[in-house]
């Protein structure tokens, strides 16, 4: 891979540290180089990466959608153009998808998504969004951004329309992640808040520059970053440890429109295999614990934290309100008692 493209894909916290500085001696130069190499090795977990073309979708999309001639299959209203795979056009009631035909058995991987969301609708008059999947099921139409509900695996959603009337100061479009085990339903009315692992706002509509989504799964840790500002720098979106995803699932991308619509385009999906150095103990522990059902450690803790966050503003409002009413009530009682005391005191002097 070219050095320039490798540098552009690195998170900004790595690239921003590279500054020129004078070296006063060869010994200093050697010491700094060794220290820097150790730091970069620690940041990347001493890993190497390899582009997996059989799991990547890039131009010129040769044979995509044709039976037996491509690793990718189209579904619904999706279509291939010279510039992108259009999941949905800017029209009402459309669903489209592109799914990998080959299950992925990689232990650690990284997906870079080049996408576009654009249309004629004004702010909050567009919808509904797109999703990137790593799931047991494939090629299933449904209400969750064009995929089935109660899915098994990972979904990363680019949600462009708020369904919840009081969305608790959340700014849309919003990117969030969810892990399903086949029995967890996505809550449309609350924009997925009860089951989300985390997320971030991302103003991705109608931008003239490229927009990217970065999904990394390494050592049972899920990291999502975005590059949407045209600065070629990654911005943190969510970072969750203890995410357990089985191997052998399928990658895909889906989108859906309803009464409101947008063009949802996938320019490229690039999957990289990450080769991470592990200790013998780590390898033995992972081999002993075979993951068969997707799960997240401390998911109940994440949910309770989200619930507390959602209720904090309401609880604070009522706390302040009742505190003020209590203070006013006590003040009135105090004034009444004081007036009675003053009157009785004056009567004693007559």
TrEMBL record:
The chain crosses the membrane at residues 314-338. SUPFAM superfamilies: Concanavalin A-like lectins/glucanases (SSF49899). The keyword DNA repair does not apply. It is found in: Endomembrane system; Golgi apparatus membrane. GO terms for molecular function: D-mannose binding; metal ion binding. Keywords: Disulfide bond, Glycoprotein, Golgi apparatus, Lectin, Membrane, Metal-binding, Signal, Transmembrane, Transmembrane helix. It comes from the Eukaryota. Residues 49-274 form the L-type lectin-like domain. The keyword Metal-binding applies. This is L-type lectin-like domain-containing protein. The gene is lman2la.
